[in-house]
Amino acid sequence: MIIRPYAPGDEDALYDICLRTGDNGDDATGQFADPRLLGEIFVGPYLRFEPSLAFVIDDGEPAGYVLGARDTPAFERDCEREWWPPLRQKYPPGTFPAGTRDAHYVTVLHERQPANPAVVADYPAHLHIDLLPRTQGRGMGRALMERLLAALHDAGAPGVHLGVGAANARAIAFYEHLGFTTLRESPGGRTMGRPTT
Asked: I want to staple 168 with a disulfide (CB 3.0 to 4.6 A). Which of 24, 45, 59, 117 is the partner?
């Protein structure tokens, strides 16, 4: 089991990992009519705009990843200009029945909320990390995070933030163990951050 940079051709596998960890770390495969929708939001733009900040756990095939963006406002502008418009055409409101998870994420796609300026002032980078169960409990998550934190530091980002669902207690504990602190909290989740050094 190794950690390597993202390589072209990994896209489908990383989209699949996103879906298979899309229920607060558990498998969300049966919860979506469109198995690519989550990946289009949470994987694709990072591979397009920040490929040098994408790292993969490989045990013969991709089994986990971490994706980062060095400058969140700049990343959001890139997505608004190039990534979201074709997806909004592909997934117009009403594409899926109301109340489904697909419909929720179509709304997310159309109603993007910019990052909190108070958060990005000190923690301008952000990340997403997902690991399949077979990689967990073996130090690979920590190793992935250390790899990305070093790359973000080298890229000039002083701090990084992330979002985590309130129900994902396992992930919250993992981030706290890595030195992340809670910056903002709501009933649905929290924003956590830490310096890249």
From this structure: 24
pLDDT of residue 150: 96
2-195 has which CATH code? 3.40.630.30
DSSP state of 170: H
Strands in 54-58's sheet, in edge-to-edge order, are: 2-5, 54-58, 62-69, 125-131, 159-165, 189-195, 181-186
pLDDT band for 159, please (50, 70, 90 cuts). very high
Burial 3-18 (b: 16+ CB within 10 A, else e): beebeeebbebbbbbb
State the DSSP string of 7-68: -TT-HHHHHHHHHHTTBTTB--GGG-SSTTHHHHHHTHHHHHH-GGGEEEEESSSEEEEEEE
